[in-house]
Amino acid sequence: STAPDITRPLGPGDQTRRYSPADIAPREARPGSRPIPVTEDMPSRLLFEFVRWQDEPTVTITGEIAPGDAQRFEDFIKTAPEVPTQAFLNSPGGSVSDALGIGRDLRRLEIDTAMTASDICLSACPYILAGGVERAVEDGALVGVHQHYSGENTALPAFLAVEDIQRGQGDVMVYLAEMDIDPLVMQHALVTPPDEIYLLTAEELTRYGFTPEPSE
Question: Labelling 215: which of 60, 69, 77, 164 has CA 20 to 30 A away?
């Protein structure tokens, strides 16, 4: 991709950035702004950590979304001291099917999702964000979408690989509707190649239903 680096500020009509999960480093958080500061490289699969934050049982979900992480999250919740009321996200994305599974678990358990100004939620991660009963995204947080891609399809005939991807996109659109997210957000994903990411503005996050209308 020849798009600008993901750290470059957005401008009107200038929202597409280069995307490579391996090159995305955690951003420094303000002291005391999130339950568990991220100080090392993103984990290669999701890391779940339980903590009480502002007197609320909380889980932090950090790292790339690997196949099997939905089951790992379900197992984690079963062994947590109590069911969290909120989940903080910081992930460059990964497995779409696992993101949908985690998002459905969050909604079933009535857990809210949140992002601080230093957090990212890219690729498949916005589907986890969508699972929150209530969703809070601080100014400065990066939420982005792009085309679905599976490296596992390289051995398949092209028509089967395309069929698999289209079926997955259909599943995502049904899921977004279940979560009261406008499936039109997919228009940005469908035209953004896998090596780039379309970063949603605060206005778009509200328009598509990820965040509430700002209070007057």
Answer: 60
pTM: 0.92
pLDDT in tens, 79-116: 999 999 999 999 999 999 999 999 999 999 999 999 99
Q: Around Cβ 196, how many Cβ atoms within 10 Å? A: 20
- The pair of structure tokens assigned to 68 is 């099997």
CA-wise closest residue to 102 among 158, 138, 59, 144: 59
Q: Where are the beta strands (DSSP E) in 65-150?
A: 86-90, 112-115, 120-122, 135-137, 142-145
Indicate the SS3 state at residue 12.
coil
- Per the structure block, which two tokens stand in for 85? 């009321």
State residue 214's pLDDT score: 79
Q: Provide the pairing of β-strand 142-145 with 120-122.
A: parallel
The pLDDT value given to residue 151 = 46
Cβ 47 vs Cβ 63: under 8 Å: yes
What is the length of the chain? 216
